[in-house]
Design a protein that fits this description.
Layout: H1 40-55, H2 61-81, H3 89-105, H4 109-129, H5 138-153, H6 161-173, H7 182-193
């Protein structure tokens, strides 16, 4: 069973429990990244979006609705909290995708526009600095490439494919052990683009 925290008065609203045994955060003074992790909105949310895109026809309707509700709560909570900046690269890349994707899935045009505008600002910063703000770590690179692949495979374009291709190429070429993988990564992203999304 998918369980999100549903308490709009708290900063942890729309986040996910890390395990079935995870206690509910205290109503006052819940410690960020100790008793809850707001980034799980994007990590779990994008995973749920992939599952809904690729396996929706195999999932029971009740589970699909629960997943959509969890995504809606995650996105709306992130918007309400207003904590994310476009220079928080790996989370920002996932957030821009999820915001716009959820808008399309849930027929909320203002979310599609908001996700696009946020993503465009991420791209503007990328151009300004010649790379993503957070880099030089396998953790960041992996999530950055995951999110860029989501952007590239989305039916609702968050940015032009050529822009995303530039981001992928520059990111891959800055990973010392992965420079030779740039072509392979681009081919993988291209294959995902031609899927049914």
């Amino acid at each position: 069973m998918l369980v999100t925290r549903d308490d709009p008065s708290q900063p942890y609203n729309g986040t996910f429990y890390r395990s079935a045994e995870d206690p509910h955060p205290p109503a006052r003074y819940a410690r960020l990244f100790v008793e809850y992790d707001p980034n799980w909105r994007e990590f779990v949310g994008t995973t749920l979006a992939i599952l809904l895109e690729d396996y929706s026809d195999r999932l029971p309707e009740a589970l699909r609705k629960q997943m959509e509700s969890a995504i809606e709560r995650a996105v709306s909570s992130e918007i309400a909290e207003g904590r994310l900046r476009p220079d928080y690269s790996n989370i920002a890349l996932m957030h821009g995708f999820l915001w716009s994707w959820a808008g399309k899935r849930l027929q909320r045009s203002e979310w599609i526009r908001g996700g696009r505008q946020f993503s465009e600002e991420v791209y503007r910063l990328f151009n300004e600095h010649g790379n993503l703000e957070e880099y030089n770590s396998p953790t960041y690179y992996g999530i950055d490439l995951h999110a860029l692949a989501l952007w590239r495979s989305a039916a609702e374009p968050l940015a032009s494919l050529s822009r995303i291709g530039v981001c992928v190429s520059v990111t891959m070429s800055s990973v010392p052990c992965c420079r030779r993988w740039t072509e392979m990564s681009n081919a993988c992203c291209e294959a995902r683009t031609t899927s049914r999304w």
